[in-house]
Amino acid sequence: MPKKFKTIVEYDGSNYHGWQFQPDQPTVQGELERALEKIFHIRIPVYGAGRTDAGVHASGQVAHLIAAWKHPVGNFQKALNSILPDNICIKDLSEADADFHARHSAISKIYQYQILNQESRAPLKQRFSWHVSRPLSVAKLDEASNYLIGAHDFASFGSPTSGTTSTVREIYQAGWEKGHEDQMLVFTICGSGFLRYMVRSLVGTLIQVGLGKITVRDFQGILACCDRSKSGPTAPPQGLCLVSVQY
Amino acid sequence: MPKKFKTIVEYDGSNYHGWQFQPDQPTVQGELERALEKIFHIRIPVYGAGRTDAGVHASGQVAHLIAAWKHPVGNFQKALNSILPDNICIKDLSEADADFHARHSAISKIYQYQILNQESRAPLKQRFSWHVSRPLSVAKLDEASNYLIGAHDFASFGSPTSGTTSTVREIYQAGWEKGHEDQMLVFTICGSGFLRYMVRSLVGTLIQVGLGKITVRDFQGILACCDRSKSGPTAPPQGLCLVSVQY
Fold first, then answer.
1. DSSP per-residue codes, B90-137
2. What is the pLDDT of residues A31-47, one digit of tens each?
3. Per-residue pLDDT averaged across B121-147, rounded?
4. Would you call B124 and A59 a contact, using CB atoms and an 8 Å cutoff?
5. Given this model, what pLDDT does residue B1 score?
6. CA angle at residue B156 from B150 to B161, to 5 degrees?
7. Catalytic residue among B12, B24, B53, B99
8. Mutate to test the interface with B, among A52, A61, A83, A124 (most CBs of B within 10 A)
């Protein structure tokens, strides 16, 4: 009797063309489905909570799948991890209610974006951060980020994901803090959902504020105008990580 | 008029066959000498403080070189960094006394070794740590490490580097602490110098103590017997980082 399973997945996205399956490119979903096929000898689809883009990482992506696993659930996790490549790991696997859906059941998601703010680049940190060499004002970054909280039309910062048309999302939390190392700035954002490229577009535009290239008021104007062409450059993918999904 | 320069180099060693130049393999020294050749159109040798092995990282390797650079020294650093690949960076470059030698003038070196001690592997941390899935006793690791402090013959843990025959080294500091994340254990060791594979061999043997496979007294015996065949397995390279060199 097939059962539904919920999994929490961590991956280093550096070498993947994103989460979503593509026939000719390595993807995280593709690797998971290939591992499942090795175990069950049939194709089993995996549904992720969100489609992370090429080069984006996850420490807490959530996905569900339906499979006829008869043994203890811990063995299922071990079996998958023994097949998956080193840069993908099933952190948790549990049986889920029949109506659970990784994307539709999600209440909120948390993303983090790491910026290395120092003059010199840093080979040991570049894989998981964006290097911004000119000094950033954390006070200004925080001030601008405060305007994100609440329900807004984020059309300036992204396009709807497939299956949706609205560009309104609610942000519950958004702020900056210093990381373990002094020069690392970490942006944490929690929201009901995110448009395609939204976090990276927000970060890219916030950095313009932090560098003093635009004012906090300019940032408010960009948010209010709902014009995709008005946002700053999209921040690069390697600084972004899907941290967790709440249900 | 050629001058002597001291540089501090950071690198992600994952894709290199170590520090030392090899004609047919990518090495850190090779990349540095290639960058210098692009600037000066002649071959300029680079002398490192220590020869890190394949896959070992450095946040503070030191090297010296002699070059006829006529412009401000900051421009020399920028010129090198603009040529070097992303995984190598000159963190600092300054003029040095004529008798300075990166290896011979060094008084001590600090290495760190990171161990991820949790059941599940972690794709976001594997590049810079060794994953040990069974629980380690930090108290035992620390107790055994204390016996390293002082001058000892470390023949059980490595072979002399080229140009030396003695296997006696002095260790000034050796200890374990929890990293920023709870599951990361960081071993820091400061010594007058290190034999080839010494830190990784020490860590591999200390882990046997931390796992309870051998006792602290066994570890003392291995240190005392000066027999290379008695040490535990050599810990893998990606957990090791040359942090700094003192002069």
1. EEEEEE--TT--TTTT--EEEEEEEEE-SSS--TTTGGGSEE--S---
2. 999 999 999 999 999 99
3. 96
4. yes
5. 84
6. 85
7. B53
8. A124
Indicate the residue of A10, A88, A123 with minimum beta-carbon distance to B87.
Answer: A123
The A-side interface with B (CB below 8 A) comprises 10-12, 57, 59, 81, 86-89, 91, 120-124, 126-128, 180, 241
B68: tokens are 């006829």
CB A69, CB A80: distance < 8 Å: no
Q: Are A82 and A31 in contact (CB under 8 A)?
A: no
Higher pLDDT, B161 or A63: A63
Instruction: Report yes or no: A109 and A245 within 8 Å, Cβ to Cβ.
Output: yes
| pTM, to two decimals | 0.92
The reported pLDDT for the residue numbered B160 is 85
Please say whether the dihedral angle defined by the alpha carbons of residues A156, A162, A165 and A171, taken in this order, is positive or negative. negative
CA gyration radius, chain B: 19
Packed helices B73-83 and B28-40: angle between N→C axes, nearest 10 degrees: 120
The interface pTM score, or ipTM, of the predicted complex is 0.89
Provide, as residue numbers in chain A, all residues whose Cβ is less than 8 Å from the Cβ of B126: 12, 86-87
- Considering only CA atoms, which of B47, B26, B43 is closest in space to residue B35? B43
Averaged pLDDT, A55-70: 97
Q: Which tokens is A133 given?
A: 């060499």
Which residue of chain B has the CA closest to A86? Answer: B123
Between A159 and B16, name the one with better pLDDT.
B16
Please list, in sequence order, all residues whose beta carbon lies within 8 angstroms of the beta carbon of residue A166, skipping any fewer than 6 positions away: A160
The distance from CA B220 to its chain's CA centroid, rounded to whole angstroms, is: 24
User: Number of H helices and number of E strands within chain B?
Assistant: 5, 10
Domains of chain A (ranges plus CATH)? 3-95 (3.30.70.580), 108-246 (3.30.70.660)
pLDDT of residue A81: 97
Mean pLDDT of chain A: 95
Structure tokens at B153: 């013959």
pLDDT tier at B182, thresholds 50, 70, 90: confident
Q: Which residues pair with B113 in a beta bridge?
A: B187, B240
**Spatial distance between the Cα atoms of A146 and A142, rounded to a whole number of angstroms:** 6
Give me the percent of chain A exceeding a pLDDT of 90: 94
How do residues A157-212 score in pLDDT, each as one tens digit? 998 876 678 999 999 999 999 877 779 999 999 999 999 999 999 999 999 999 99
